[in-house]
């Protein structure tokens, strides 16, 4: 998306040399434009949607558990709920089938991937048509290796074939895993083949996670060139421990990976588990607030048929979604600490505005009280800021850089405020 002069000249050189370049050497050129994101016109803000994995796992037992097995039926039911319950209209557009949709073997003759015929009796194109008719987009899962993580046929040796299959089914989003593979070279190759289909498909990578797991330093510039979003830490589970660990990694921000987030490419801390079994109300607010401030993809994995009103309205909080989707696309980072509290900060529009989130990740019996001056967090506009609390949308008044700001943060809790210069009278968010 972002162009700069060195890239433009690279493109010119590429044009001149085009006829001489073999397919394989294209990848060398892909890595030259340091600031560029994958140029497929997609994911200009963090993708939002719903995905099967964390909540429904690899449940293939449709005989005994017909309502919860990975099947056409489950995807259609969730697509219906995304629309009927208002999720689509606040931005959750992608419905993504994770592992365990495949038949145990490729077609013997054509070698094409086939969905499990019993669980997806009408095939994936039919499901894509259904999802599209609802104003939603369809995502699917594969793996670079010989087999997927759950042991279904992988894409190794079939990357081009599978990219073409996904395009022919009118898939809109492809999540590529790294089990049973050496992922490094393949991420770029699959990106190339997806591009060659001519169908824009969001490309979700687990490549950096594969490197993280092997202790290899991640080259985020290279990742951003070929992926729209990329996992860089372990799988989330339905627990505070897991959310806290992910936040810990994003707080450390190894190699300043936050700098690589932006329109077209995003760090992916994994699914929203809000509305499941493991998180308290405060912990759910921490996840939603932090995924918003970190410009993270908002991909839910939960049961929309049974979700309670608290979780549903948290997931549909328009102020938090607006912060997540802010078109500057800057990933918020840990800015400072306030005793045992962490202070995170994200620049948003209008210019000069910031979101401040203050979280309490430690265990304690009671809320922690604290205070600060906005100037301590770099909020130095001498005209002051209009401040809005973001979970409920209440205005909390006008603050100058040296006005004392008092807060109280629950254990495993969060408070979150937008600071917008009083000189800006546009109401972008609120
Ligand atoms: C393929 O890549 C080219 C060059 O980066 C880009 O202009 C085009 O939009 C891409 N097409 C798709 C379908 O991703
Ligand atoms: C496909 O080939 C495998 C191995 O050769 C065989 O076991 C299987 O029965 C074949 N499947 C079909 C549908 O022909
Ligand atoms: C990350 O950014 C900080 C502050 O901007 C800088 O001091 C540090 O050297 C950077 N680290 C890396 C690995 O780029
Ligand atoms: C949830 O909200 C709906 C509509 O807003 C309402 O009808 C329903 O009673 C609420 N359920 C609970 C358990 O509060």
From TrEMBL:
It catalyses: Hydrolysis of terminal, non-reducing alpha-D-galactose residues in alpha-D-galactosides, including galactose oligosaccharides, galactomannans and galactolipids. The keyword Calcium does not apply. Its EC number is 3.2.1.-. Residues 339-418 form the Alpha galactosidase C-terminal domain. It comes from the Eukaryota. SUPFAM superfamilies: (Trans)glycosidases, Glycosyl hydrolase domain. The chain crosses the membrane at residues 20-38. It is an enzyme of class 3 (hydrolase). Gene3D superfamilies: Aldolase class I, Golgi alpha-mannosidase II. Belongs to the glycosyl hydrolase 27 family. Homodimer. This is Alpha-galactosidase.
């Amino acid at each position: 998306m972002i162009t700069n002069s060195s890239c433009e000249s690279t493109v010119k050189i590429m044009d001149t040399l085009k006829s001489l370049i073999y397919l394989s050497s294209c990848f060398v050129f892909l890595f030259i434009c340091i600031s560029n994101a994958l140029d497929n016109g997609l994911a200009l803000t963090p993708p939002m949607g719903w995905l099967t994995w964390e909540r429904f796992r690899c449940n293939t037992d449709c005989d005994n558990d017909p309502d919860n097995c990975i099947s056409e039926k489950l995807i259609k039911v969730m697509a219906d709920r995304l629309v009927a319950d208002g999720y689509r209209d606040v931005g959750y557009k992608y419905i993504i089938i994770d592992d365990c949709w495949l038949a145990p073997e490729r077609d013997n003759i054509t070698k094409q991937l086939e969905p499990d015929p019993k669980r997806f009796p009408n095939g994936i194109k039919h499901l894509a048509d259904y999802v599209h008719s609802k104003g939603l987009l369809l995502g699917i899962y594969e793996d670079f290796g010989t087999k997927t993580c759950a042991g279904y046929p992988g894409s190794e040796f079939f990357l081009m074939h599978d990219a073409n299959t996904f395009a022919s089914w009118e898939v809109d989003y492809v999540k590529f895993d790294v089990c049973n593979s050496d992922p490094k070279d393949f991420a770029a190759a699959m990106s190339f083949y997806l591009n060659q289909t001519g169908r824009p498909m969001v490309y979700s990578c687990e490549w950096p996670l594969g490197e993280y797991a092997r202790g290899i330093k991640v080259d985020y510039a290279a990742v951003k060139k070929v992926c729209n979003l990329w996992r860089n830490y372990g799988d989330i589970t339905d627990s505070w421990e897991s959310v806290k660990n992910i936040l810990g990694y994003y707080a450390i921000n190894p190699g300043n990976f936050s700098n690589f987030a932006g329109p077209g490419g995003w760090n992916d801390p994994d699914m929203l588990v809000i509305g499941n079994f493991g998180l308290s109300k405060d912990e759910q607010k921490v996840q939603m607030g932090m995924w918003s401030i970190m410009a993270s993809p908002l991909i839910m994995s939960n049961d929309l048929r049974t979700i309670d009103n608290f979780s549903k309205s948290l997931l549909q909080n328009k102020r938090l979604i607006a912060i997540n989707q802010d078109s500057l696309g800057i990933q918020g980072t840990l800015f400072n600490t306030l005793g045992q509290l962490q202070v995170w900060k994200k620049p948003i529009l209008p210019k000069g505005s910031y979101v401040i989130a203050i979280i309490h990740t430690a265990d304690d019996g009671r809320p922690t009280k604290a205070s600060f001056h906005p100037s301590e967090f770099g909020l130095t506009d001498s005209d002051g800021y209009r401040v809005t609390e973001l979970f409920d949308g209440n205005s909390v008044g006008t603050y100058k850089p040296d006005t004392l700001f008092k807060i109280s943060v629950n254990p495993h809790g969060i408070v979150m405020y937008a600071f917008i210069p009083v000189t800006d009278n546009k109401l972008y968010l609120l």
